[in-house]
Amino acid sequence: MVGSAIPKRWTFSLALVGLLSLFVALNTVVWSQPASAQGTLPTVLDDVQVPGSITLTAGQTITIQAVTRDATGAVNNNLEDLIFDWVSTAGNLTFPSGVVNNSEEAKSATLTAASSGTVTVSVSQDGGTAIDGVTTVTVREVPAPGTPTPVPQNPPGDPPVIPTPSDSGQSIGLITPADGGTVQGASDSNVEVRVPAGAVSDWMGATVKPVDRSSVPQPPAGSFRLGSQIFDFKFTDEAGVELDQIRLNRAATVCLPYNQADMQGAYQGIGGIALYRYNATTEQWVRLTSNVNPITGQVCASSRNFSLFGIGLTTAPPQSGTGLPATGDAVPGTGLLVVAGLMGAGLIGVGAVSLRRARRAGNSAV
Predict the structure, then answer these.
(1) pTM higher than the cut 0.70
(2) pLDDT at residue 342, as a whole number
């Protein structure tokens, strides 16, 4: 009677609810069990990881650390009954041998690198198969110290006495390998050449001689013009004989004085003053990277080659013409001509109509 009073759809629903309650009850027992009762994965050693490669120098010390993971892939520091065994072919290795635990002490070893090789740690659990972690060690060679630059030495014997030039306007000085030397102009100390140590390999003399501007090659028109000072710097042997095509081992510093006329004559004022050297091979004046010192009134530059040196002044750029601008060879297109023609015809028509109206108005007024 009760069964017949309950609709079939309710009966089916109650059955489903009962099955679901039974499923939940059964699984609750499993879910309530501790993880250790469900399996042994977290307690089993599955992998050992160490640095894949390291680069050291001979004698360098480094500590290598092993990381243990369980079967779930997680880092696990609570694994039990582990034995760490370290082996090195890359140098001396210090480690606690045969420690049966997973302490930080057991998982690390200290390497003093000697040569390229490997460091291997073998980890076993409770007498099982060992799992290896291998670190490749590369020992780079320490570069040998570079060959020190030899200290310039003077030749044996006493320094020579360079003969005094016959020209009273020319000055000369001794240049030595160990100390170099400085030579100044005969009448102006702001004319000088400073030669560093090591620039020459033997006893030498350096001469400084003023030169008249009209006697030297002139620069091309429009490039620059020579200023107030031109000097000939040359080197001689210890006997005073001039040397051609001399090139120093190290650059010397050449300085010439400039004056008010140079500043006024340069297109850019003091910024337009520079030192030039005449290249006899190419027969051209070469502008040198110059430093203008307004305190000493000198312009200086470095050079390893020697010949004529002069102050150069920039010139004003050429002025452009003031005539009408050139129209070029532009030709209007056909379309533009047609439009212009139509506009012209229209203006003519408008003018004609206006003229006729003006005439009519004049006739009617008469």
Answers:
(1) no
(2) 56
